Amino acid sequence: MTHSHHSFTHPSPLPRHRLPKWQRRTLYASGAMLLSTGLIWLVLHYSIGAGAGELPHPLEAWLLRLHGLAAMAGIFLFGALASSHVPQGWRLSHRWRLVAQQRTGVLLCCLAALLATSSYLLYYFASEDLRPFLGGIHAAIGVAMAGLLLWHGRARVLISTPK
User: Fold this and answer.
1) Whole-number average pLDDT of the chain
2) Based on the structure, what is the number of domains in the chain?
3) Closest Cα to residue 75, out of 135, 115, 25?
4) Where in the sequence is the domain holding 88, given as residue range(s)?
5) Which of 36, 87, 115, 131 could anchor a disulfide with 126, C-beta 3.0 to 4.6 Å?
6) How far is the C-alpha of 102 from the C-alpha of 92, rounded, in Å?
7) Collapsed DSSP state (helix, strand, coil) of residue 125
8) d(CA 51, CA 53)
9) Does residue 97 lie in a domain region?
10) Per the domain annotation, does 103 fall within a domain?
């Protein structure tokens, strides 16, 4: 008697909703540059620079230039995310395991918009009296965004339906 072996395959999970490697690496690199240049500028400015009543430290201007360069890269990347990653994630958000990802993604988009707006205001419109307050808000949003981006990106939630 011949026994046929039936191969019972379990459906494999759907692919993860992840950024392509180049986007993820570039996003984290620009985010690291934004965070580091912003924090170093704050320390220099308020400890030994213009914010401490002294002459501006020579590195202050260069840190802001690097910060602006990284911001341009970040804005470009968020545009790329807005055209592919965000809509795909929104379509997949009906899956129960992705609800938290959707929430953090929406919050990341809102924080990115607030950062872009506050940086524009700082650069073009803030008076000298308002600049420290607005700069503090900008810095707090930037630090919050860095933490949230790590939380959102490290969750590595599989796209699957509840069993």
Assistant:
1) 83
2) 1
3) 115
4) 21-154
5) 131
6) 9
7) coil
8) 5
9) yes
10) yes
